[in-house]
Amino acid sequence: MGTTESSLVDTVRARPGLLLVAVLGGLLLVDLLAKLAGVSVGPIGGALSVDRFRSNLWSGLVIGLVIGLAGIGLSLTYSILSFANFSHGDLVSTGAFTGWGVAFLIAGFGDVPVRTLLSVRDAGSASPGDIGAHILTTPGAILVGLVAAFVVTAAVALALDRAFYKPMRDRDGISILIASIGAALIVRYLLQFVYGSDRRGITASVDASNLVFGPLGISIDAHELTIVVAALGLMLAMHFMLQRTKLGTAMRAMADNKDLALITGIPAERVVTATWIIGGGLAGASGYLYVLLRGTIQFDFGWLLLLLIFAAVILGGIGSVYGAIAGGLVIGVVFTTSTIWIPSDFNQAAAFAVMILMLLLRPEGLFGGVSTA
Amino acid sequence: MSDDETAATGTDPTEPDDAESAEPDPTAAPSDGEPTATSAGTAHTVDDDAILRLRDVDAGYGDLQILSDVDLDVANGEYVTVVGPNGAGKSTVMKTVFGLTTHMGGTVEFQGEQIQGLPPEQIIREGIGFVPQTDNVFPGLSVRENLEMGAYILDSVPEDQIEAIYDRFPILRERSDQKAGTLSGGQRQMVAMGRALMLDPDLLLLDEPSAGLAPDLVSDMFDRIDRINESGTAILMVEQNAKEALRRCDRGYVLVNGENRYTDAGDVLLADDDVRQDFLGG
Questions:
Q1: Which of A7, A149, A165, A185 is the most exposed place for a label (fewest CB within 10 A)?
Q2: B178 and B217 both lie in a single domain
């Protein structure tokens, strides 16, 4: 008994931040419970419907999966190529535009000029919403678009590697990081040049788009369900690839120890190529899914999203693929549930505050020290 | 007569067959009962069946030259160890054979083919395995995955070879699914050796295998190396633990300041007063 108490005191003394976070977390939890119960005592409590809380959690989970999916590629390039890739966010945008171009082409072929469809643009009477891309009305187009987003973005990532990163392979991480900022600018403004800079709506609104799950008492948007299924499927595929295939094992080996990989005879360039295909492809797919969730697209949305993706990856322990997924979920849930306490304009700030707090307690990140595996 | 002069002239006052040592006898097996002491600069026991042959090798890192005019032979199935003081370039010899240094001159022949300047992934294919001194396992991979990576260049996983390695190191079979990073130092060393043996190399390069091992594990480690050698794999080993290494090996080289100073059968070097005084601490 005495030893437990003294060790608790020691812990608090060694890490006062822990106490602070525990007290803060406890207060928020009490407040949340009071709100859900409809009790109001002074500043604590208030009114919060269980439905709203549940929908906050759910949409946090959905957006968290998208961020986590995008984070996988960032973590992979960090652990295997040893640099923080600032062009990752624009790969997310690339996937969104190219993927939706293909989805529109399939959904609206014949009704609207191909050029308009491919460039995901309003043209005369046909606004993107009129093309009617929706998982319930044009499921084939949406799925083919997802595949296209993956494939085209993987190709773009590979092209960027050959053009910029490969000649710099032996340079230090900071030099390559700065090169990646340049690559990010190139991609972003090429996207603006090709697709224009206006924000526009993408998905059609369809009646009865909400699927109600009676027993659970929740109604889920069909697009949200699509996102969850697609993101989980891609994550599982990636997990299988990393753990069960020879190439995936080689990727983990190279993330573990590049010098040893070299003298073991693992072909470094083939592993790097695979890293870009998988990391870039998943970034593209996540961008496509993000637009499916938000319903709108803009040429620089990936760049703006990159901050949250970085937060997720750092929170999870940079370099860890599973950490990126976990970090994405935490960031996503904080992002949406923070609106219970603060205006939604500040929910990004809340996500970063949680990241900083977590790092104070666990500087190596959630999955830190556990390399890619 | 000072030690330096002894080394330079190649005259060894303790060695009775001094005259013969100037003309090495190619038929003399390295572990012969009465080996002849030879010194660098004059002669080597040149075996015609040497699988590895370094001649006048200069090598280093970038602009920094570490090795100069190194000659070194390893015969088929021979167990050769390189000893010498810290900073003598022992590990550099090993890395040079494996293509990890900047080649600056001379030739490295393996099984009659010149391999200097080849990248490591090609040298593996020639039949050389390398166990680095530190960081020689993939910590996040399981024991089995570490072994599988050793055979990456093959199209399929050689199950029989994995079994052979498990038979050689039974503890690894038990730990097959455990992450290599969680193993003890001795077990990691086994994983590292197993990985390097996956392609059944003709020559195994070992860089200070006893480094970082608890003292009571060191002799087990040397026993394992003996057994690998007995199964026909030639070994070129660099060791800090010079006495034990020389006792075990067929032949030793003493490397000083990037040049080889002596070579002879291990026990002869051990008995040699100059070698003892200069490098083995008396």
A1: A7
A2: no
Q: In the beta sheet, which residues pair with residue A244?
A: none
Domain membership of residue B188 as a residue range: 133-194
C-alpha to C-alpha distance for A370 and A363, rounded to whole angstroms: 13
CB atoms within 10 A of CB A118: 17
| Residue B153 near chain A (CB below 8 Å) | yes
The helices-and-strands tally (H runs, E runs) of chain A is 15, 6
Regarding whether B282 and B144 lie in a shared domain, the answer is: no
Task: Give a yes or no: residue B36 inside a domain.
Answer: no
Q: Where are the domains of chain A?
A: 73-304
| Whether the Cβ atoms of residue B51 and residue B111 lie closer than 8 Å to each other | yes
- For the segment B13-25, the average pLDDT, to the nearest whole number, is 41
Q: What is the ipTM of this complex?
A: 0.81
CB A287 within 8 A of CB B143: no
- Could you tell me if A59 and A336 are in contact, meaning their C-beta atoms sit under 8 angstroms apart? yes
Contact state of A252 with B138 under an 8 Å Cβ cutoff: yes
Instruction: Kindly state the DSSP code that residue A156 receives in the 8-state scheme.
Output: H
Say yes or no: A262 contacts chain B, CB-CB below 8 A. yes
State whether B100 and A260 contact (CB < 8 Å). Answer: no
Residue A246 near chain B (CB below 8 Å)? yes
* Cβ–Cβ gap A373/B140 under 8 Å: yes
**Per-residue confidence band for A131, with pLDDT thresholds at 50, 70 and 90:** low
Q: Sort out which chain A residues have CB atoms less than 8 A from B100's CB and list them.
A: 263
Rounded to the nearest 5 percent, the helix, strand and coil shares of chain B are 35, 25, 40
Contact B47, B28 (CB under 8 A): no
Q: At what angle do helices A16-37 and A50-81 cross, to 10 degrees?
A: 150
Does residue B214 sit in the same domain as residue B250?
yes
Question: Under a CB-based contact definition with an 8 Å cutoff, are residues B246 and B268 in contact?
Answer: no
Residue A298: what are its φ and ψ, rounded to 5°?
A: -150, 150
pLDDT digits (tens, 9 = 90+) for B224-272: 999 999 999 999 999 888 888 888 899 989 888 888 777 888 778 887 7
CB contact under 8 A, A263 and B195: no
Q: Which residues of A touch B138 (CB under 8 A)?
A: 252-253, 256-257, 260-261
Binary contact (A263, B132; C-beta < 8 A) = yes
Picking from B137, B138, B178, B189 by the largest number of A CB atoms within 10 A of its own CB, the best residue to mutate is B138
Report the largest interatomic distance among the alpha carbons of chain A, rounded to a whole angstrom. Answer: 79
CA A261 to CA A263: how far, in whole Å?
6
Q: Which of B152, B174, B194 is the last residue of a domain?
A: B194
Last residue of a domain, one of B194, B222, B246: B194
Residues B61 and B78 in one domain: yes
Taking contacts as CB-CB distances below 8 angstroms, the residues of chain B near A253 are: 138, 141, 145, 149
Q: What total of structural domains would you count in chain B?
A: 2
Q: How confident is the model at residue B38 (pLDDT cuts 50, 70, 90)?
A: very low
**CATH code of B80's domain:** 3.40.50.300
Q: Coil, helix or strand for A16? A: helix
Closest to A63 in 3D by CA, of A334, A363, A356: A334
User: Tokens 């970038």 identify what position?
Assistant: B62
